[in-house]
Write a structure and sequence with these properties.
By secondary structure, this protein is α/β, with parallel strands linked by helices. About 60% of the residues lie in helices and about 5% in strands.
Length: about 1400
């Protein structure tokens, strides 16, 4: 259904037509649920902040009013309580700065403050703040009316208001607000209403944010402060108190206003690093790569580590001096009549709840404000509650005083009207000073504390005032002195994201879902541009790097399949393609999206020009973005440009892509972030992976995110920061030199890249809000081959991380020794997993069958022998045999595991029902576990996963597939681990390889069947030779003739050809003998000669002596030669290795002639398409001529073709394929053929000279294909085999030792020595229990932040949803005529 909208002026303008999206009911319900949840959370935060801040202020006033008491000892106890109220926030700040700023942190990211300037400023500010705070709490507040005491706390905005006056216009008309959008003609009515409301809000802001309002606020604050000083200095107080209050009120408030001013705080936290100009530059090989305006790391943590410690020390001296010599009283009760403990106990008896509530509520208010800002709920969680705090506190004081008259003993006069006037005036000045700024001051989602608040500190006395002044202000520079109201925010607003995908041989379904995902991003980009304007929207570009997609100038079938899907998925016109020839092949480009706002390019890679495989495609697009696009485009920079890596079978939404930016934008130390990946497929193997993926993200990635940093951001869907990739690119582009590098680089390129990022000091994160789907292997063989790469690469990278732990912990703030220890436990638990699985199965079997320990030992030995036997099978047999045996063992062990789990369940029930305290003979209980280790572990295991699934409620159904996962434990942790270790020397990729030949040790191995057959044939031949030797020679050897002469005559009597080389003679004998039975037909066979170009091609290769061989086998032109395989070269007779390699290499560059599906007009036309029209007479003679005869061709076999008279190998192969394709073409095939015609007819444009030079240089440096034979491949094979043997030996030894250790320590013989046998079984639990407990606790922490992230994006997601439902989502028709 097309969205209809008329022009406002009624003109029949030509405009794009859009289709409404198909939004699912489930998606709408989920969004509305999140919106309702956000509203509830917002109300909860508003209430929490308001209540906590009001409680903090009211309890403070009550504590201060107690200083008017006549009891000196109780008064001294209140001094100590108020002192703790002042010190507690600084103690919290000191501990926080110690953990987050010093422990394990490097000085480059957490520098020390500048010496001596910042340190002197810090000391002076600390002295001023401690003196002013002491004066307010001990001198001012005790002698003021409670309402005025609440109001006077709002008088600390004088200096900040004076500073802000410089940055606002004189009048509201001086500030211009301009709509920064391209075209509003096609906006919906709701968009127009929203824009009008935004304009109204801007006008209101302009009316309030000017020098006039700031001057009013400044006048109110100064006037009230002076009035209070004069008023309370003379009212019902002696002359001494009058002078003290007259001096203390203005000095203390002005001092605090100066101390907490934005400019002052900046001087305190200024680091010793030299602040650059407006940005930094990074040298590259051919120019300068710009980086964005970089914020120099402040010394906020280390500066306030020193400052908070200084304040804590000062608070033990300054208050004493002020109270002792200023108020002429004894504050600390240090005389003999009153000791501190007695004084504090008296005050504690009367004021303990006020004291505890004040400290706790102050901290909670600050914490909830931080949560509100992180969730972008600052308006309801910071501005409104803090602005209402003073009025609500006044109301509470009045109500409480009316209820309980003994509260607020410092209510020394009854003129509440004047007090309320003072409260109103100061509150209004507070709102005018910073209220509007705080309302408009937003921050990024999940912003770190340093991006929300200037200093890591809060104040328990001036709670809301300190938070308001501490709010981080954006850094701005003046663009024009003639227009002082024009500012530019140094924080970059426009970001560029390159979606880079790698593709090889995906099917059309996988390609279609990835292209649809890219189009959703294009629609999102168009909406963002309309909403935020040309200069602020997030730009996206999509680039697909297609391995082996072109051969010379001819696109492969998979490439044509991809291009044929563009019109349906991207809704673009193929004829608008920009086709460019590049040094690596071709590039096809379009602009996609509703307004064609997003560039889309397919980079067709020719494997003969550049290296193939995924890692080298990644090297290509990283070089393209980092070293070409950023250098060329003046608007791009490293820190604000990102690469979104995807696989070719990925399915994601535009929101998932945008969500990933939140993590990178909120923390400049994050180099990459990955999403929650869901598998797609069907069948038992898929079910196993559903749970495997779930626990991998629920527990493992969450634990890595919280405890340190994520160690693998998979290339299927992850976002990388360009500034993080740049220093890693050189190392990532290196070749493999040894066996260990092969495991890290070629077997797991994604994890290797992440390891480089971690080594360079970057943090990697996991974002559960962003989700994607990818097809997983649903075939057992493909699953094992995939994990055969993943398991060794994971372990190898973890071992590399552990081996370089000291350097990494020094260079990376997020990686600690404890995190390294956690990873070591992971590696160790993986290594002993085979032994653990065996022990679990034996324990379960023993519970079921109740046999003795000797039978358990025998069963353990049997399982170990089975494992060793499978390892030998993997070493000495082919891949097919290994996988077939793995299937049989998986089925057998699943049955065993089913029985074992029945026994484990029975044991758990028995332990629960039979739980009791066990005593020895003397009646003294000795230590024994309440449950067996297996029962305890299984109960804890199940409980953890149930709670985890409930916390991931939308994904809780994954828990059902845990049954398959548990039954498949022996396969996943025993068989698969052995299979992976035994195939470390296998260099093949394993997935999407089709029928291509695979390298590695597996290709040269024989199957068991062939091996046994060969042994039997050898034995048979030996027996025949030994038993029938005399008879055999009498039959074949004439008398008086030597065997050598006979063999020579036989050779000389063999029919000869024109080929003079002796190595072709056996093949010619085979050829002649194989065609004896077809002599009658051969005479009628047409004489098809080799064309001149092919003849010249062989001559140029120096292989002209093979011309007759090729011609006799039917390889008469390039199309036939391009389809030759290894066995075809054997049949032709090219046996010399040098000539053969030369021809094979040259044949790969020849164009092929794919056989098309279709029904031709007649047989002649069909043969003509196959370039075999010479056989038309033979087919006609057999009755195959007209179109009606084509149907009869379908059943012809190879023997039937020979009977017709076709004997040449190439022609038989071509006809065999053509007969299978002799059918009506499908819609997809028709579309592919049409696409091929469009692309072939598209004009080829030349590439820009600088880009061509760039690619040629990069190909020469690292991307040029290298012949395997010219590398150290033989040495690498030997090293890989050595590594494989070592890995198998270590795996065997470790697991046998673990089994012996655990099993031997549970023998009953130990009980006679009073050794707690069950306690030794804790060794079984320690490793896994520690890991699961850490992961579970980290998961809980991660779910909290995920929940915050979800709610923080609800408004954005809902806004996008509303816009897309009214405007554009899926179909774009840019021409009315079309």
């Amino acid at each position: 259904t097309l969205a209809e909208d008329t022009e406002s002026d009624g003109a029949a303008a030509v405009r794009p037509t859009y289709a409404k999206p198909k939004s699912s009911r489930e998606s709408r319900e989920r969004r509305w649920g999140l919106v309702c949840c956000r509203v509830l959370v917002a109300l909860s935060l508003f209430s929490a902040v308001l209540v906590c801040s009001v409680v903090s202020k009211v309890t403070l006033v009550e504590l201060a009013s107690g200083l008017n008491l006549s009891d000196q000892s109780e008064k001294a106890g209140l001094y100590w309580m108020l002192l703790f109220v002042l010190i507690t926030p600084h103690c919290v700040t000191f501990l926080r700065c110690l953990v987050y700023g010093v422990c394990g942190k490097k000085n480059s990211t957490h520098p020390w403050p500048r010496w001596p300037k910042a340190l002197i400023w810090g000391f002076v500010v600390s002295v001023f703040e401690v003196s002013a705070m002491t004066t307010v709490v001990f001198v001012v507040l005790p002698y003021l009316h409670p309402l005025v005491a609440l109001a006077i706390l709002s008088g600390v905005f004088v200096v900040q208001t004076l500073v802000d006056t410089r940055t606002v216009p004189w009048t509201p008309l001086s500030k211009h607000h301009r709509d920064n959008v391209d075209d509003t003609r096609y906006w919906s009515p709701q968009q127009r209403r929203r824009k009008r409301w935004a304009t109204v809000k801007k006008v209101i802001c302009a009316l309030l944010e000017n020098k006039l309002t700031k001057a009013i606020a400044l006048t109110l604050q100064l006037g009230i402060i002076v009035t209070l000083a004069a008023l309370y200095g003379t009212h019902k107080v002696g002359n001494t108190k009058q002078l003290q209050l007259a001096i203390a009120i203005p000095l203390s408030l002005l001092a605090l206003s100066f101390v907490w001013c934005n400019k002052t705080l900046m001087k305190v936290i200024e680091s010793k690093q030299v602040v650059g100009d407006k940005g930094q530059h990074m040298e590259t090989e051919r120019g300068v790569a710009r980086t964005s305006s970089v914020v120099i790391p402040s010394a906020r943590f280390k500066a306030y580590l020193i400052s908070s410690f200084t304040k804590i020390v000062l608070y033990f001296f300054v208050p004493y001096v002020i109270v002792k010599f200023g108020l002429k009283s004894e504050p600390w009760c240090l005389n003999e009549e009153c000791v501190i403990s007695e004084a504090f106990s008296k005050a504690w008896h009367h004021y303990k709840w006020y004291f505890l509530l004040q400290i706790i509520s102050s901290f909670l208010a600050y914490f909830f404000v931080w949560i509100s800002c992180a969730m972008r709920l600052h308006k309801v969680g910071l501005v409104l509650p803090l602005a209402l705090c003073t009025p609500v506190s006044v109301v509470c004081c009045v109500v409480l005083h009316s209820i309980k008259k003994d509260l607020f003993s410092n209510a020394t006069y009854d003129n509440s009207t004047a007090a309320l006037a003072i409260v109103g005036a100061l509150w209004l000045s507070e709102v005018l000073s910073v209220g509007l700024y705080l309302w408009n001051r937003d921050n990024l989602i999940l912003s770190k504390d340093k991006m929300m608040f200037m200093v890591p500190e809060y104040n328990g006395v001036f709670l809301e005032q300190h938070i308001m002044l501490n709010r981080q202000r954006p850094k701005k520079v003046l663009l024009s002195h003639s227009h002082p109201t024009l500012y530019y925010d140094l924080v970059p607003r426009q970001r560029t994201i390159f979606i880079c995908s790698t593709m090889y041989r995906e099917n059309d379904i996988e390609m279609r879902q990835m292209l649809s995902s890219i189009y959703s991003v294009a629609c999102r980009c168009c909406e963002d541009k309309q909403q935020r304007g040309e200069e602020r929207y997030d730009k996206f570009e999509s680039h697909i790097f297609f391995d082996g997609s072109i051969n010379g100038t001819q696109l492969t079938h998979f490439a044509l399949q991809l291009v044929s899907l563009l019109e349906d998925t991207l809704h673009t016109d193929l004829r608008k393609c920009m086709k460019q020839e590049t040094p690596y092949g071709y590039r096809l480009s379009w602009n996609i999206g509703p307004d064609e706002v997003m560039p889309f390019s397919i980079h067709m890679k020719d494997n003969l020009k550049v290296k193939n495989k995924k890692r080298w495609s990644q090297v290509m697009y990283m070089n393209y973005v980092l070293n070409y696009r950023i250098r060329k485009d003046q608007q791009l920079d490293d820190n604000n440009t990102f690469i979104l890596t995807t696989d070719a079978d990925i399915d994601f939404s535009a929101e998932s892509a945008v969500v990933l930016i939140d993590n990178l934008a909120s923390n400049p130390d994050v180099g990459a972030v990955c999403a929650r990946t869901h598998p797609k497929g069907n069948g038992p193997v898929y079910w196993y992976q559903v749970f495997d993926y779930a626990i991998g993200h629920w527990l493992q990635k969450s634990a890595e995110h919280v405890l340190g940093c994520v160690l693998c951001s998979p290339g299927c869907f992850s976002l990388f920061r360009c500034s993080a990739l740049r220093p890693c690119l050189e190392a990532y582009s290196t070749e493999v030199t040894d066996a260990f590098e092969f495991l890290t680089k070629d077997m797991g390129e994604d994890r290797w890249l992440c390891t480089l990022l971690v080594k360079n000091g970057w943090r990697l994160e996991y974002c559960a809000v962003s989700e994607d789907l990818t097809y997983c292997p649903d075939d057992f063989d493909e699953f094992f081959r995939q994990r055969r790469r993943w398991v060794p690469s994971t372990i190898a990278n973890l071992m590399l991380l552990i081996s370089e732990a000291l350097n990494i912990t020094k260079n990376n703030d997020t990686v600690s020794i404890l995190f390294i220890l956690y990873q070591f436990l992971n590696v160790f638990s993986t290594a002993i997993s085979p032994a653990t699985v065996i022990l679990v199965m034996v324990a379960g079997m023993q519970t079921v069958f109740d046999y003795s320990s000797s039978w358990s030992t025998a069963l353990i030995c049997i399982l170990i022998l089975i494992s060793v036997a499978y390892g030998l099978v993997c070493v000495y047999t082919s891949q097919k045999t290994q996988l077939d045996v793995a299937k049989l063992l998986t089925l057998f062990l699943m049955i065993v595991m089913c029985v074992a789990f029945s026994g484990i369940a029975k044991g758990v029930v028995d332990d629960v029902l039979g739980f009791s305290t066990v005593s020895n003979e003397t009646g003294t209980p000795h230590f024994r576990l309440p449950f067996s280790p297996t029962s305890f572990y299984m109960m804890f295991f199940v409980l953890v996963f149930i709670v985890t699934a409930l916390l991931h409620l939308p994904e809780a159904f994954c828990l059902v597939h845990g049954i398959w996962y548990l039954l498949g434990l022996p396969s996943g942790y025993l068989i698969l681990l052995i299979y992976s270790a035994a195939n470390l020397d296998n260099r093949s990729w394993g997935t999407r390889e089709g029928n291509t030949a695979r390298g590695g040790s597996g290709s040269g191995k024989k199957s068991i069947k062939n091996f046994l057959k060969m042994v039997w044939e050898k034995l048979t031949v030996c027996c025949l030779v030994c038993c029938l030797k005399d008879k055999y020679y009498s039959l074949i050897k004439p008398k008086n003739q030597e065997p050598d002469l006979i063999d020579l005559q036989v050779v000389k009597s063999t029919p000869q050809t024109s080929v003079t080389a002796t190595e072709e003679q056996p093949s010619q004998a085979k050829s002649s003998s194989s065609t004896d039975s077809e002599q009658t037909h051969t005479a009628c066979e047409p004489d098809m000669k080799m064309d001149a170009d092919t003849n010249k091609w062989l001559k140029d290769l120096g292989c002209e002596h093979y011309t007759d061989n090729f011609e006799q086998n039917g390889y008469i032109n390039f199309h036939f030669i391009a389809e030759m395989k290894s066995e075809d070269f054997d049949a032709v007779g090219v046996e010399k290795r040098g000539f053969r390699k030369r021809i094979e290499k040259a044949a790969k560059k020849l164009p092929s002639l794919p056989v098309k599906a279709g029904i031709p007009e007649n047989v002649y036309k069909w043969l003509e398409q196959l370039e075999l029209e010479g056989y038309a007479d033979l087919f006609k003679g057999e009755g195959y001529d007209a179109r009606s005869d084509i149907e009869n061709l379908k059943g012809l076999s190879k023997e039937d073709l020979k009977g017709i008279g076709i004997t040449k190998r190439a022609h038989l192969q071509r006809l065999g394929v053509a007969l299978k394709r002799l059918q009506y073409p499908t819609a997809v095939e028709v579309q592919v053929e049409e696409t091929k015609g469009v692309i072939e007819n598209t004009a080829i444009l030349s590439l820009e000279r600088d880009e061509a030079d760039f690619w040629e240089r990069k190909i020469e440096e690292s991307l040029e294909p290298v012949s395997v034979n010219l590398t150290q491949i033989d040495e690498l094979k030997v090293k890989l085999r050595t590594l494989r043997n070592a890995a198998l030996a270590v795996l065997l030894i470790i697991n046998i030792m673990w089994i012996v250790l655990l099993y031997s320590l549970t023998f009953d013989q130990l009980e006679k020595y009073k050794v707690p046998t069950k306690a030794f079984e804790l060794l079984f639990l320690i490793v896994y229990l520690v890991i699961i407990t850490l992961q579970f606790l980290a998961m809980l922490f991660h779910r909290v932040f995920t929940f915050i992230h979800y709610l923080a994006r609800v408004d954005t997601i809902e806004e996008i949803y509303q816009e897309s439902s009214e405007l554009v989502r899926t179909v774009v028709i840019t021409e009315v005529s079309r």
